[in-house]
Specification:
Layout (H helix, E strand, L loop, with lengths): L1 H27 L20 H18 L11 H23 L3 H18 L6 E2 L4 E2 L3 H21 L6 H23 L8 H20 L8 H21 L3 H6 L7 H14 L2 H16 L12 H8 L3 H25 L6 H22 L21
Antiparallel strand pairs: 1-2
Helix pairs in contact: 1-2, 1-7, 2-3, 2-7, 2-8, 3-4, 3-8, 4-5, 5-8, 5-11, 6-7, 6-8, 6-13, 7-8, 10-13, 13-14
């Protein structure tokens, strides 16, 4: 565990230092776009924070090559190099969009290319679904399922990049929960080492988010932009595929560590990676439906995302962000607790997860739908609310 703590702290420290430096350089050379018609913030703010996060991630991978605990990553360098190559591509295109506002077709093409690099050259694909021994029946099906899954998660994370600290905080909470899950899963399956590529990526992303949030908390000095949000989505999808999509279904179906609830133990490896990005996926789905019904591109920007609706209900920007944090934590922790309960001879931990989830979701619904302040119009949105990226 201490090795994971080290890599997270290293990434966080480097990301924070680089974010501050990029903020100063951006202000000095005016490396920020003007206010666009769809933007709701009124002060031009640099959007290059994704560069700091990217460099922190790259440095963490470099350190892993020299660290004995993580050196197993580089036994076959094809996977880490593919991950770094795809990440570099998506950050370059994202930063170009943050500065030049690229056409959505260019961004989408780059996303598919990056996902293809992961699936084809990195050979990180969804080979199996841990349900009753189910495997993906075709190499091309596995490839396409992997590529579309990565692209969907990338866009889902990017779509919620609309309030100061929102994406960074949600990704931080999601990766903490996913790290705990992947760590426990490896323990329960009786592996000889607690190290996995999924746990490593989650630890690195935890560090990148912790390092960036001080610069992004309301009022934000620096936005992560498309470069940062797309990178987070890409690596979160890759970490989930690295452990869930390649997990032998027989390990879960036959392992006594999952106790009485064999069915739940089989489904959670699929459920939890989806649950931790539940809000981004929900927002993404609603946005696609809304825009296509209006005869627009599913990637045409608008101001009708979930966080915008919360502002219009009367929540302040900070309150809305904290409520998103609560939703992510409640839903993710509930499933994690239920997973922990599957390894017990009595249902106490499982029931604790169910009760925690029901009570927590009920509380979140009340807070979300009954804000403490009167509803306000769009024109009164906070000055520092970031641009709608997608």
């Amino acid at each position: 565990m201490k090795q994971y703590v080290f890599i997270a702290l290293f990434t966080a420290t480097l990301t924070l230092v680089l974010a501050w430096a990029i903020w100063r350089i951006s202000l000095k050379y005016k490396l920020y776009p003007g206010i666009r018609e769809r933007d709701v913030h009124k002060t031009p703010t640099p959007r290059l924070g994704g560069i700091a996060m990217y460099l922190g991630v790259v440095a963490a991978f470099a350190v892993s090559a020299a660290h004995p605990f993580f050196s197993i990553i580089w036994t076959d360098p094809q996977q880490p190099l593919a991950i770094l190559g795809a990440t570099s591509l998506i950050v370059i295109v994202g930063v170009a969009d943050d500065l030049l506002d690229l056409d959505w077709m260019i961004k989408l093409g780059a996303q598919f290319l990056a996902a293809g690099i992961i699936a084809w050259f990195g050979e990180l694909q969804i080979y199996a679904l841990p349900i009753g021994g189910m495997t993906v029946w075709s190499g091309w099906v596995s490839f396409l399922l992997t590529v579309f899954s990565i692209v969907i998660v990338m866009n889902a994370v990017n779509f919620i990049d609309g309030l100061d600290g929102l994406v960074g905080g949600v990704a931080l909470i999601a990766n903490v929960i996913f790290f705990a899950y992947s760590y426990l899963l490896v323990r329960d399956t009786g592996a000889s080492t607690y190290f996995t590529l999924a746990s490593f990526i989650a630890a690195v992303l935890i560090g990148a988010c912790v390092g960036f949030l001080p610069m992004n908390w309301s009022p934000a000095k620096l936005f992560m932009g498309d470069g940062g949000a797309l990178m987070l989505g890409l690596l979160m999808a890759v970490s989930a595929i690295a452990i869930t999509g390649q997990l032998d279904p027989a390990i879960i179906g036959d392992n006594d560590a999952f106790g009485r609830s064999q069915l739940l133990g089989a489904f959670i490896p699929i459920i939890l990676p989806v649950v931790i990005v539940f809000l981004p996926l929900l927002d993404f789905g609603l946005a696609v439906i809304r825009r296509m019904r209006a005869g627009k591109s599913p990637f045409a920007p608008d101001r009708k995302h979930l966080h915008h609706r919360m502002l219009d209900l009367g929540h302040s920007d900070r309150d809305a962000v904290l409520i998103f944090y609560a939703w992510t934590a409640i839903v993710g922790l509930s499933v994690l607790l239920m997973y922990i309960g599957t390894g017990q001879d009595w249902p106490g931990e499982y029931l604790a997860g169910v009760v925690f989830g029901v009570v927590g979701i009920a509380a979140c619904l009340v807070v979300t739908l009954l804000p403490p302040t009167p509803a306000r119009s769009e024109s009164s949105a906070p000055e520092h609310t970031p641009q709608e990226a997608s």
